[in-house]
Amino acid sequence: MGLDVGWAVRWLTLSAQAMAEHRVELIELDRPIGDSDHGENMDRGFKAVMDKLAEAPPETPGAALKLTAMTLMSKVGGAAGPLYGTAFLRAATALGSTSDIDAATLATALQAARDGIVARGKAESGDKTMVDAWTPAIEAAAATAGDGDVRKVLLAAAEAAEAGAVSTDPMLARKGRASYLGERSIGHRDPGAVSSALILRAAAGAAE
Ligand code: ADP
Ligand code: MG
Fold this sequence. Notes:
Layout: H1 5-21, H2 23-33, H3 38-55, H4 61-75, H5 80-95, H6 103-121, H7 131-144, H8 150-167, H9 191-206
The structure holds adenosine-5'-diphosphate and magnesium ion.
Adenosine-5'-diphosphate (ADP) is lined by residues 30, 34-35, 37-38, 41, 78-80, 83, 117, 121-123, 129-131, 175-177, 190-193.
């Protein structure tokens, strides 16, 4: 059995909970290498997503992700809003009108999300951005999709994203606000990589 609209709504709900729970942590991560607003941005954005979901319950997973994309683009300021907006929009487009997502489609949608972030932000792996969480995540998803188990794909993606976020610690930032710090960005974890890992962990949690 694949993933349905119930999963998508649970995913977004768990993401909103994670952004609220980790709001201060994300703010603290954004302090030394940014402007201390990432936790605030993400919490505000996902709270708005929850309001939209209550107003107009989506009928397909793709519709849920499209609503999320539009809301994040309009409610999340800074770099992260358009980046996450593009990610959710590309994933929604990849899903189309399907009501039951299989493992291969899931891996394709995650890949589309990552590609959207790269298209929008032009960051490469190793630039110390959310791409360093997403790229290992989609590689892990692609590597596990063949087994046909959506839960396994999501767990692999979440674990890889968490390791990817940790891997940003020694990196020198080459994109976004943190890049202004040059060498001084080394030794700090990228906040967007951490929020990305939280969102992918929520996706796995929603499938349990
Ligand atoms: P801002 O930097 O405008 O204050 P946020 O603090 O909400 O926005 O988000 C910062 C995060 O956005 C960074 O931690 C990084 O992961 C991500 N980011 C910034 N620029 C880029 C980019 N060009 N490509 C990918 N991710 C980026
Ligand atoms: Mg910031």
